[in-house]
Amino acid sequence: MKKEYLLLDQVEGSLIELSNLHRVAYDEVVKIKSTDSNSEMVGQVVKIDGDSATIQVFGENLGVSTNNTKITFEARPFEIPLSNRILGRVFDGIGRPIDKGGDIYSNKFYNVNGRPINPVAREYPRNFIQTGISSIDCLMTLIRGQKLPIFSGSGLPHNELAAQIVRQAKISANDEEDNFAIVFAAIGVKHDDADYFREAFKNAGVTEKVAMYINYADDPIMERLIVPKCALTAAEYLAYEEHKHVLVIMTDITSYGEALREVSSSREEVPSRKGYPGHLYSDLAMLYERAGMIKEIDGSVTLIPILTMPNDDITHPIPDLTGYITEGQIVLSRDLNQSGIYPPINVLPSLSRLMKDGIGDGFTREDHSDLSSQLFASYSRVQEVRSLAQIIGAEDLSENDRKILKFGEEFEKRFLTQKFDENRDINETLDLGWELLKLLPEDSLDRIDPKLREKYLNKAVINNG
């Protein structure tokens, strides 16, 4: 039964406090109506203390006072209607359509708070998702059901990379291609950034398989805490009820963390490291752990959260905690970006902890694991030789070291560098890796099975003419 209250204790910012309540639940949705302006807003119970509660309003409390407002408790959590018609649509931060396509009509409403997947019910991820980007597909392979964040910095092309992944991503099994969908969540983005994503998807012809949830930078800050939950709820519906393989891309998780810090400060919670609340880890984990695969259920949720590191500091609380929870990371480099390399993926600190079980014969190609390991080791050696060359000069390097430097230049120029609209097949990526390895001294190829070296290295020499 809905309960209405007319007397408020306090209104401060976007928070409303009231007491003498009866059977009010945490996270319960409330309707706030000003008797003067006749306007209605939505809020949510964020704190309960005895018979008192604090309500967070989605928006500004302009015109709201303690004696002209009616609070109605809806006796339900925050829910959104879902059907397969959400694909091709654009919604705001709390799940309302903003594309002039009309409301979503469904007899099914879903609680956006959701729950992390029970570890016992998880299916171990093994299937490869092709992004068409060589450095990701070969060296930090994305696996279906994985959580693989992108660590970026202010001014780096993470938006372009996210749009390219949305345009090009596909599951490896061709007979399942129709079951692939994408949910895109933009958290605290500028209007021109949101327009960029919409136009990029439209021009690429992938709009019909994408559901977008957008929270603009000038939208209420509380919505930034809801939009990733709405996106994940939609992804769970598509995966576990419509049996689709869903890729969820979120940008920018740093905006989510900063909104959490601001709301926590307004609630007067005790701050932790750099002013973030002590429950930042559990909040991020409750988002990330909703991705995965469930045993005996067709469908999967794969998550790529994008976060900008303040001052490029990878030890900042948000990337630091994200690294603990997720299964690897893709790190973007400012130095590579300034050198004109796109996408500027810094290979050495990047990794995918699940790729070892999702590549090789039957998944990608038999040589993938050995080739990836050799490219990593060789590029690591490139950094050592470059440091040595700065000390003694490139002209005093040995012949083998000069070959390693040549490999490094070609690796960055041909393998890491791709055009924004260049979509490379996994076989094309692996063949390119073999072509680059033949630039190295043969005795340095110590991470490759001799049979694979004979089969693919000779083929690469022939292909390169």
UniProtKB/TrEMBL annotation:
Ranges for the ATP synthase A/B type C-terminal domain? 357-456
Q: Per the record's keyword annotation, is Cytoplasm included, yes or no? A: no
- State the UniProt keywords alphabetically: ATP synthesis, Hydrogen ion transport, Ion transport, Transport
Q: Which Pfam families match?
A: ATP-synt_ab (PF00006), ATP-synt_ab_N (PF02874), ATP-synt_VA_C (PF22919)
Q: Which residues form the ATPase F1/V1/A1 complex alpha/beta subunit nucleotide-binding domain?
A: 132-352
Tell me the ranges covered by the ATPase F1/V1/A1 complex alpha/beta subunit N-terminal domain, including all copies.
10-73
Functional note: Produces ATP from ADP in the presence of a proton gradient across the membrane. The V-type beta chain is a regulatory subunit.
Family membership, please give it. Belongs to the ATPase alpha/beta chains family.
Protein's name according to its UniProt entry: V-type ATP synthase beta chain
